[in-house]
Amino acid sequence: MALVGGADAEHVIPEPPLSLPITDDYDWEDDFDFASGDELPEEMRWPELGSAAADDERPGAPDGAWRDDPDGHLDDVVDYMKRVYAHSRSSDEFVAALKDLFPDLREKVDRGLALLAEYLDLDDVELPSPDDDITAGRGVIYLSGAEMLAAELAEELELESDRV
Fold first, then answer.
1. pTM of the prediction?
2. Which of 8, 100, 135, 155 has its CA 20 to 30 A from that of 34?
3. Beta bridge partners of 13
């Protein structure tokens, strides 16, 4: 937790949630340049949807310990999701395969897509506050960074399939 307003302040804000595994010595400015067409480092890449080899076994059920603390096991959860992704042929299949880990992921993906469609034509000034959306029951609350990552991947897949 970090203090807000100096050492005497009573208010604290939580530390940010875990993110994708990136080595401590990774320097975005020196090691990665989107503008020049650099690719993501290998450890950050996701396989192509449905790219699993024919002899590659489909991942089984997720580890039970992950359900209670997916961010505490983020490396394992992301690895599992990558393998599920490689075996999936669509967003629906990917989401269904993660149901044991994230039971209400389908609803969150649908809600996220609905909000994206509603806000598509708005500029930054016109966008409502995410906190206001959540208070009004319209926003999406993810219980972990891993769940948010899964939802974003599923949304991206659905948006791509709509463009094709």
1. 0.69
2. 155
3. 2
